[in-house]
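Chapter review: from sequence to fold.
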Amino acid sequence: MKSPFQYNIYTFFKLPSVWWCGIRVKSVNEKSCLIGVKHRWINQNPFKSMFWAVQGMAGELSTGLLLSNEIEISKRKFSMLVLNNKANFSKKATGKILFSCDQGSEIRESINLAISSGEPQTIWLNSSGIDSSGDVVSKFSFQWTLKVKK
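The token string follows.
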């Protein structure tokens, strides 16, 4: 498993919009992934809060990185893709926002099922954005597809 620093270097080269918007990996392990982003001029909307798409990138990264880690642990090659997503915004996103996904065990089950059955799997992964006051500012759900490559 890579360190948050290694993942942040990866985003600089492979996901530059994530990097320039200030989205950073804070922690990742087998169970959860934590992504941080601070409201700044570069990622704001005309209403002086964080643009919804920046929140979506951070939410997707928290789910996708957790999924990628489990795939790496499986030592198998997979294709993965977002099929659907849902979002809910409950408060203006200002200041520091942390997005987290803690569905590592569910991801592991889906990967093991895909390997044992040989059939593609789908899984809904959730990420919540929480501000420094502890209030939920947004919630995202991403439906990922997983298929073992032959």
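Two observations follow directly from the output. Residues 4-148 form a domain with the Thiol Ester Dehydrase; Chain A fold (CATH 3.10.129.10). The chain has four helices and six strands.
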